[in-house]
Each structure stands twice: as C-alpha cells, then as structure tokens.
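Course assignment 3, question 2. Fill in each field.
Student: A.L.
Task: Predict the tertiary structure for the chain below.
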Amino acid sequence: MNKISEIGSTFFAYLRRPDLYPELRRKIWKNIFNRSSGLRGKEDAEKWCASQAISEEEFIENILKITFVPFEKLFPQEFEMALQAQAKSPVKMGGAGALSVIYYINEFTDSKESIETGVAYGWSSFAALASLVSRNGTLYSSDMPYILQNNSSDFVGCVIPEDYRHNWDLFRYADKESLPKIFAKADAFDVVHYDSDKTYDGRMWAYDLLWNKLRNRGVFMSDDVGDNAAFKDFCEKNSHQPYIIKFDGKYAGVIIKE
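Answer field:
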C-alpha cells in the first residue's frame, strides 16, 4: 500500500467509526501542523538516557530491593502459551517490552489498581496482571483500535492468560476518550504504565494527567523514552528522580512517587 492509498484508507476507516471522530480530528491537525512532535529533542533524549541507563536486573535488585528472577522464568507455562497465541495471530502488533520491570513494579507497590495505555498483543498487560491477580486487583487498559487491520480487535490482548481476564478492564478508544471513562471507575492508581501516543505533545499531555492520578509511593513507567525529550523534560520540569532502564536497545523510564 503506497502512502497516498494508506492515508485514504485510514481516513475512510475513521469515517466508519463515529466514536473515533475526535481522534480523527486530532490526527488531521497533527499531520498538518505538528508533524515534528514525534522526534522533538530525540538526540538530547538519547544521550540523556544513555548516560544513566541501568539494566532491568539492576533496577529490580538495587532500587526495588527485590530478588530478580526473569518474568518468563516465574511463569514459564503461561509465557509459552502466550508465545503460541502471538504466533497464531494473523495481525502484526507491537512486541513484548520490559516484562520483568512491569511485573515487579506491581509487586513493589502491592498494586490493587493499575493503569496502562497501549495494549497490542497484551504482553505488558500479562505482566501486570500476573501480579494483580494475586491480590484480586484490576488493570485498566486504554488501547486505540487498529482500524486498518481487519479483525484486529479479536487479537488485542491475545497473550493474556484466560484466568487473568476477569481482572482486566479494556477501553477501546484513543487515550483522550478512554482515560476519562477509566477515571470514572477508579480515581487513583498504584502503577501507571504509558505506552501509547509516542509524540512529544501526546506524552506531555498524558504524563501530567496520569501522574496526578498516581498514589504516593506508586510507580510511573513510560516506554521508549529515548524517542523524544518528553520524559526528560517532564522529569526536569517537576524535579522528578528518574530511573532509566535499557532493554532490547530501547529505554524505559521509571519514577517512584515520593
């Protein structure tokens, strides 16, 4: 599909979904007036991340003070079934992230209510829920529909074990529509995991909003913080102490709310 054809297909796919019209308006505005937002400050952000990055194991052992066992070793049967579920999916979505970090920050906070933006196959959801179900907690997830991929909704969260799903509450809208709906059900969270709109402006809007919903001693995590300067600027503006975790050649940022 060439670029013009893709744009046309995307536009008409949105037109068939009136519930997504607000996001369509935002995408049109962004693509006309704010195309550089995704990479704003990328070079500085990458240098900043590289200068202080630690491994998943270092973060879990030295900061959280929890003995590190890789997530896939803690839940080997569930992990293998998740790999099989992903392999069967005809829809291409994002892969797994820092699963051990996601699992252990939920353990660290004894989380009862966690929120994430971005689901795809559901690897991060799987990791969070593996902790939450032990306390009968709830994971609230916001995930924008993959409107160009037929039947994609059948595979969102497909790697999540069946017996975890009663602790999962999924909202299939853009964050600006999903988050108010989630906040109507839960007003404060022990863990925030951000992995949706990767533009600078999208992050800065969501970071402020989600931070204010995070309980004291809660943990805030954002993926791909080397893509632009949003996480760096958010930390510097608010005097937050971040931990930068390197995995698979990418960076995640974590803040513990004091």
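Instructor remarks: The chain is about 45% helix and 15% strand. The two ends are 49 Å apart (CA to CA).
Grade: pending
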